[in-house]
Design brief:
It contains eight helices and nine strands. The chain is an alpha+beta fold and 307 residues long.
């Protein structure tokens, strides 16, 4: 046997040995996606992904009640698989879920994004009895008495965004960390811009004058010389904030409003504009700008409607 042939044979032999040595490791990795029945069955290599429980134990046949009580994911996934994804996806909206769902078995384990659950809307839970005060630290978006908190208005402004998303570029001090924005456009040519100023520093979550920022919103790609009516809605300490209103009208440590104060609170339960509407004109390059101060925390929604 000449030298080149011996070299090729040696390399081939080493490759075969490497494959054999890798086989047990590959089997362990692939077997981790199988149930016990699949592992003990005739098929060594799983052909498709198989769910497994968090504790990696296979307990055999079980009732649906026990599966739900002990979070047995295999049962949940197999139940969804037996029903069929099309049936499951079409049935979910009956429970109030309105977002589109990815067509895969993982949605049975809660991987899909869903809209706000009804039970987090209100601050009043009958199981806990009467709350100690109007604003008692509850996480709901509406107070007892159905007064809308700033977080309700934040969600409402997000809902106002138009269907088409626009590219947004942020520059300046705090851009992309404190101050962020979303741009949108309607089929009729309206432009909606949502801008907010928010810190992750919980020590300053209630407000910080040092973190306020001057903001200029510039919209480009418009028809040169075209006029637009700008409407500006705002959520901050002085606008659309029922907690601030209650703090100003209550007497010391007063827990609940009087009848007169309830009337004042209900009158203030609205989304406030920052100021009157104004008309702006796009320049010769199809660009227009609107400048304003954005406190922290605060959220602004600007609507540019063709005049």
């Amino acid at each position: 046997m000449n030298k080149p042939l011996r070299s090729i044979s040696s390399h081939a032999l080493l490759i075969v040995i490497a494959i054999i040595m890798m086989a047990p490791f590959a089997w362990m990795v692939l077997a981790s996606f199988k149930t016990l029945q699949d592992i003990e069955g005739p098929n060594i290599w799983p052909t498709t992904w198989m769910p497994q429980n968090y504790d990696e134990k296979f307990i055999g046949p079980t009732t649906l009640r026990n599966a739900l009580a002990h979070s047995r994911n295999v049962v949940t996934v197999k139940l969804a698989q037996s029903m069929g994804l099309n049936y499951l996806i079409n049935y979910l909206p009956r429970f109030g879920f309105s977002r589109p769902f990815a067509k895969n078995l993982s949605i049975s384990l809660g991987t899909a994004e869903v809209t706000l659950a009804y039970w987090v809307v209100s601050d009043h839970f009958e199981e806990l009895g009467r709350p100690p005060a109007l604003l008692h630290g509850g996480f709901g978006t509406r107070t007892v008495g159905e007064l809308r908190k700033p977080r309700w208005w934040a969600l409402a402004l997000l809902e106002r965004l138009f269907p088409d998303r626009l590219a947004v570029a942020l520059t300046g001090d705090g851009a992309g960390s404190l101050v962020e924005a979303i741009g949108s456009r309607s089929s009729s040519g309206e432009v909606g811009v949502l801008a907010w100023n928010l810190t992750l520093d919980q020590l300053k979550a209630s407000g910080s004058a040092d973190l306020a920022r001057p903001v200029t919103v510039a919209v480009i790609g418009l028809e040169p010389g075209a006029s637009y009516v700008v409407h500006h809605d705002r959520v901050d300490d002085d606008h659309s904030d029922i907690a601030s209103v209650w703090g100003r009208i209550k007497d010391g440590d007063q827990d609940w409003p009087t009848e007169e104060q309830w009337s004042q609170l209900r009158a203030a339960d609205r989304l406030d504009p920052l100021g009157p509407d104004e008309t702006v004109v796009a320049d010769s390059d199809g660009r227009l700008e609107v400048a304003f101060d954005l406190p922290m925390p605060a959220m602004s929604f600007l609507t540019f409607t063709p005049a």
